[in-house]
């Protein structure tokens, strides 16, 4: 059935979940009572705990925190009162720039007491500031400076946004400038940041593998998230894969006793039935006893089918996979031990499993019709034992010491075991495949990260050593073609497993150093370098399709990446910066190996890294109730990604040049009513090998203009939000000819609605995705991933989600 456009009795309101470093979501009211349990410790640790409990962002010059201690804070206080008491033993005072943004400054000796306030004040200018982060990322050691465009999401922000989104890819696709719109499938393929790859880290562990399978954002349950920080723009200081930016996900830990039970129910509003309903249950237990803390989380979810605006079931995505008709299990445990006020050790394990079990397949008959003339159609009767899945197991050991040999130290050791499986592909018509088969990837990764930070007066030196040792293979399960043909493509009977990509070892060792200098009159300089040594090796193997015998081999190569930035405060309210950063990522070695000829020689292959030169100029304006951030950027590379066309028969590396603009604005009309706008526009060109002219890059790399407009209104314990999401249309064809990622796309606008109600011991969230029940095709579906109508998948119709969290 088709339903009328929906309306929710919500006042217009803004999802200020983000962005500018000073204005964030209204996670706690300044005058709302908060339960604190913060022991006396280093001021850096005390402030980190304050931000964790309140969600309020703090800004402070990092040098001001050295040797400072916080007073103990226990009991119920407002955020403003709590911060004042916390700073009581320090020489700092708080200036409130908004209900969610606070600048900490040094007290003048003659009037220390009079300058400290427990009420919001907007009379003083901003100083040179840096964000006090609450995780073990490189950003905590000061590698994030004013010369970066950043987006920040607290746990509350994520909970609110997930009320009207199915996954993290959809959230950041709407709420982060420069990120492409999400696909509504089980992939972040085509979800680029500034036209390049986004490196996803969970508690410092990279989710990428050398054989890029584009499922980095589908490896944990969102309820585990404590915060997300996204640094936009390439920066090799974080390691391989950060050519477009870094997304750092921090999971929850225990700093006070708490027990939470979660329940979630969502369904399509165009097809209200058990087939369209998703259920989820979760339980968290956390406690702290003296120096020992622990947190345990368990979640289980059953995801129903997806239905479009007309109430019709949406067909499966035949290339990258789906989320519907699936089951998810999540288990997370973290133990912390605080040796003294400066040193703490964390050990954690995380397991996430998502597996599909659907009886629907995609109907191939739509491929006989002109492209875009018909939607992909589902058909019932699928018999397939192993379907789309992802299994992610992580072990993590992290040690932090704020006074190790008079330096700050962060050290991490991690292990990851990852397997993911895709839908079968009929590759019999292609010589490079010659099989009816289903690929899956298995990767084991062992790694470490270390960083020292040495502050000396106005100078800070950060240096460290990283290592990442990965073993990845991609087999293929071959199925009986006769059974498949006789069942009209619905039944799969396994024959055997074969090699598609051989087991490949990729070993990285990297050393980095960063220097920071800040003045008292508004000038800051930041520069550094990273040296990377990489060795890739594989054993003898036989290619799948043509049966070529390929000799094993190895190749080593080195690279040095540089970064430098200068930022300056033009006025008390306006800051500007200019930055140069080199991004870096390994080429997709699997694309070369799986289609290799018998005379393939890795030593003379195209396996050089992708190094991009990124220039950026930006500004930040901050007044009493307005925050504006803007950036112009340009990125070039002489050798882009390894590209495949004709299923591996044509492999090349193109020159690339990308430029764009990002703008985000937050405006507080009153303490309760705020507005937010985000806009980004990116242009990208490539020059194929041997070509004389540049041409536009395809739509999977360069998204069209994207904008988000939102309002938020909060009164008492109720938070109401409305959000418009706009994606512009664009013609990606070359001389009117279509191709992979090269189609003319249409614009679309959607409306999401949110409401959050805080009760004594519980929180209720309700959200409606696509509240007007708009009929449209996401950008990914318009670009046709399989270059056929089976990828022309309509968007979901209106969806409603109800979440209840009870704190015992």
UniProtKB/TrEMBL annotation:
Keywords: Cell outer membrane, Membrane, Receptor, Signal, TonB box, Transmembrane, Transmembrane beta strand, Transport. It is found in: Cell outer membrane. The keyword Phosphoprotein does not apply. Residues 146-246 form the TonB-dependent receptor plug domain. It is a multi-pass membrane protein. InterPro entries: Beta-barrel_TonB, Beta-barrel_TonB_sf, Plug_dom, Plug_dom_sf, TonB-dep_rcpt-like. It holds the Pfam family TonB_dep_Rec_b-barrel. The keyword Thylakoid does not apply. CDD domains: ligand_gated_channel. It comes from the Bacteria. Its main location: membrane. Residues 390-770 form the TonB-dependent receptor-like beta-barrel domain. Residues 1-25 form the signal peptide. SUPFAM superfamilies: Porins. Belongs to the TonB-dependent receptor family. This is TonB-dependent receptor.
